[in-house]
């Protein structure tokens, strides 16, 4: 399918196949190309890019995050925000699903490289991360309220439940550069060592 928007320079093209012969493990092989796509306007969200130019391809098996395996590549040529822009960059991701819950996920781009390998379900891992972020948020708010001598406004740290899954994995994250964050952290300073 190919679509043109108001301006002749704006376009969205999608080509590919979807094999539904196995309902539990559909196969998707798709390519997408956008030129000056007005994502902010289409989604009615001012935080989204006002112009997006990307060429991407994906080849996956599975439909649920816990069943996915395959590859994704994207070459982002244009990422224009209301008050900034990103330099062109590329992203490559590979998800391998072995027996049971063993997986290897690798993401690589101009600005980072990440590897996660081990036994886990992505859905459960996300629940664990969200639970821990909630606890950290409550703790930081409580400490801030204590410093301000106003413990009445401090949130209580409530017990939480985690998924009853095993999360046994190794991960590595290498940040190659932080320039991609610049448009999103205006007025902040980011130092790393």
Kindly describe this structure.
The chain has 193 residues and is of the alpha+beta class. Helix content is 16%, strand content 43%. The chain has two helices and ten strands, in the order E-E-E-H-E-E-E-E-E-E-H-E. The protein has helices at residues 39-43, 122-147, and strands spanning 2-4, 11-19, 27-37, 51-61, 69-81, 84-86, 89-97, 102-109, 112-119, 168-175. Strands 1, 2, 3, 4, 5, 6, 7, 8, 9 and 10 form a ten-stranded antiparallel β-sheet that branches. The longest helix has 26 residues, at 122-147. The radius of gyration is 21 Å and the shape is globular.
By DSSP (H or I, 4+ residues per run), the number of helices equals 2
Low-pLDDT ranges: none
What gyration radius follows from the Cα positions, in whole Å? 21 Å
Oligomeric status:
single chain
Global structural class: alpha+beta
Q: Tell me the distance between the termini.
A: 46 Å
Helix content, binned percent: 10-25%
Order of helices and strands: EEEHEEEEEEHE
């Amino acid at each position: 399918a190919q679509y043109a928007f108001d301006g002749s320079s704006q376009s969205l093209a999608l080509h590919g196949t979807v094999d539904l012969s196995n309902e539990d493990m559909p196969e998707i092989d798709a390519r997408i190309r956008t030129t000056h796509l007005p994502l902010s306007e289409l989604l009615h969200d001012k935080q989204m890019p006002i112009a997006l130019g990307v060429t991407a391809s994906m080849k996956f098996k599975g439909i649920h995050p816990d069943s996915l395996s395959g590859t994704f590549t994207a070459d982002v040529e244009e990422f224009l925000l209301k008050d900034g822009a990103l330099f062109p960059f590329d992203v490559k991701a590979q998800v391998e699903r072995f027996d049971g819950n063993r997986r290897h996920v690798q993401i690589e781009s101009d600005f980072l490289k990440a590897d996660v390998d081990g036994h886990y379900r992505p859905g459960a891992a996300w629940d664990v991360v969200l639970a821990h972020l909630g606890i950290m948020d409550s703790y930081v708010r409580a400490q801030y309220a204590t410093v301000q001598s106003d413990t009445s406004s401090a949130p209580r740290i409530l017990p939480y439940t985690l998924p009853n899954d095993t999360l046994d994995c190794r991960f590595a994250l290498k940040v190659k550069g932080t320039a991609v964050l610049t448009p999103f952290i205006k007025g902040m300073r980011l130092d790393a060592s």
